[in-house]
Amino acid sequence: MTMREMGKAFFARRTDIVARDLLGKILAKGDLRGKIVETEAYMDEPGSHAHRGNKTPRNEVMFGPPGHIYVYFTYGMHHMLNFVCEEEGTPGAVLIRAVEPMEGMDKMAENRGRTENLTNGPARVTQAFGIDTRHNGQKLGEEIRILDSGEKPSNICTTTRIGLSEGWGLPLRYYIQGNEWVSKK
Q: What does the pLDDT look like over 161-172, one tens digit per residue?
């Protein structure tokens, strides 16, 4: 099956719309492929690193051109994969919370050091795909790609985000209902 690569125009839209539209798309890196089944949107709001336009060396990628990768390190041990959205200068990024493995599961298991719970959480996704801060600021399409499989899930749920001290009550988490790879709350 031929899949179309998602480019800058796809990401140059409102972050919450992109977060929802990423469900069913394919995260690809080398021989690894996974269907995106859960996302969270982060804009200029209390849960975001860029709240009130707060631009720092850590989050400056969020203000850059759409279609770039924002990877940050948190809790001293986890990398988080985000895709920059909105027009340049307006902060926005979509966190990839979970993917359903499609190709390269052996390599994902090797990267994770285990065979269970490969990609059902944002830190697990980055570990399984070998994504870290070296990828921060890269343009999508260089090493990491988003492919359109043509799937348009109809069973999308919208809920509040997970693990935040501020902005947790905003309905900016999206997932495919019934998918076993969605992270557990």
A: 888 778 788 999
Tell me the C-alpha to C-alpha distance, in Å, between residue 78 and each of 40, 41, 124, 144, 173.
17, 19, 9, 18, 20
- The topology (CATH level 3) of 4-176 is 3-methyladenine DNA Glycosylase; Chain A (3.10.300)
Note if the pTM is more than 0.70.
yes
Of 36, 32, 40, nearest in space to 6 by CA:
36
> Where do the structural domains in the chain lie, given as residue ranges?
4-176
- Contact yes or no for 140/83 (Cβ under 8 A): yes
